[in-house]
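Long-time lurker. I teach an intro course on protein structure, and each term I like to show students one example going from raw sequence to a predicted 3D structure in token notation. This year I'd like something fresh instead of my usual example. Would anyone be willing to generate the tokens for the chain below so I can use it in lecture? Attribution to the forum is fine with me.
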Amino acid sequence: MKTNREKYNCIFTELFEVNESELNDRFNFGIASKWDSLAHLELITQIEDTFEIMLETDDITHFGGYENGKKILAKYGIEM
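-- Reply from a regular --
Happy to contribute to a lecture. Here you go:
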């Protein structure tokens, strides 16, 4: 069974077609070449489905980076 971090990283690596080593505090919307508005919606959908949560609108809007996303998920009780 995968850990929450492994699940989270898998979403990012598959969706944005990057290596896990690229996932850090600089991996953000606008910096990651494949992270556009459509990919953002897909990211949110996959996060919600994987972790069986429903993100609030403000959290969806501010889910603009790999590290920030982990902080947002912590609000929902999902620890990495």
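Some talking points for your students: The chain has one domain: 4-18+25-75. The chain is about 55% helix and 0% strand.
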